[in-house]
Amino acid sequence: KFDRTPLIAGNWKMNMDHVQGITLLQKLVWTLEDAKHNFERVEVAVFPPFTDLRGVQTLVAGDDLPVAYGGQDLSPHDSGAYTGDISGQFLARLGCRYVLVGHSERRTIHGEDDALLSTKMAAAYRHGLVPVLCVGEGLEVRTAGTHVAHTLAQLRANLEDVTAEQAARLVIAYEPVWAIGTGEVAGPADAQEMCAAIRAELEALYDAGTAAAVRLLYGGSVKAGNAAAILRERDVDGLLVGGASLDAAEFASIVRFEH
Ligand code: PEP
């Protein structure tokens, strides 16, 4: 069913120090290699904490591992007096392919708004990083039944300054906030409903070719047991996995959803 290469991505959040991170990544790759996983057929990416990235780069480059990685956030600025921030150019220098932009934990805990996220999108593109833009509604919005309109409004705001050429390289993760880390998973039909709406919106904002090129991920309490059913949906091109990506065996079986 896949027109686009599926992407299975693990968001480690603030878990795994630089020693634990290397061990986890090594275990994950060994497990997948043992299972003869075809990394060209299903792409694997991890989002470790910033302090792990140098170690991840050394491991991936040194052993030529077929795994992509990225930062969990980036500054809208390139350098300067921004204590505690990490710039896109630093991530690019460490070999990052991706960067998460607008994860719900950044939006809620750090108060990141759409205006800020537009500048973060621009920063990601400026340094050749592929943004994984996270959108999705909270429980009140879902209960009110306005989740599609809400999520598309977020999408439009965050893509305001993104050109069609840039958008063609984009990854979008639909993550209903009520399903993140709660054990509450959106059903495959819910994931499909939103991903189809996002793709239609991309076609309206850009064109059909761009809409067909963008990979749409679902995220929210994904486990080995529910991954395959969600990925069977037509417009779902991959998964963004939090908790279950911290266990190499569990994450490997999500990556191997077809087996
Ligand atoms: C996430 O952090 O993006 C996420 C989906 O988390 P979890 O899988 O733990 O719900």
What is the CATH H-level superfamily?
Answer: Aldolase class I
CATH class: Alpha Beta
Proportion of residues in helical segments: 40-55%
Across the major sheet, the strand order is 1-2-3-4-5-6-7-8
**How many domains in all?**
1
If classified by CATH, what would the architecture be? Alpha-Beta Barrel
Distinct compounds present: phosphoenolpyruvate
Fraction in beta strands? 5-15%
Q: Using only CA atoms, what is the Rg?
A: 17 Å
Category from helices, strands and their pairing? alpha/beta
Mean pLDDT metric:
96
- The number of helical segments is 12
| DSSP summary, beta strand count | 8
CATH fold descriptor: TIM Barrel
General shape: globular
Order of helical and strand elements: EHEHEHEHHEHHHEHHEHEH
Measured distance between first and last alpha carbons: 15 Å
Low-confidence stretches: none
Main sheet record: 8 strands, parallel, barrel
Textual characterization of the structure:
One of its GO terms (molecular function) is isomerase activity. With 259 residues, this protein is an alpha/beta fold. The protein has one domain: TIM Barrel (Alpha-Beta Barrel). 44% of the residues lie in helices and 14% in strands. It has twelve helices and eight strands. An eight-stranded parallel beta barrel has the order 1-2-3-4-5-6-7-8, surrounded by six helices. Helix 1 packs across helix 12. The longest helix is centred in the C-terminal third of the chain and has 18 residues. The protein is globular. The relative contact order is 0.15. Phosphoenolpyruvate binds next to strand 8. Phosphoenolpyruvate (PEP) binds next to strand 8.
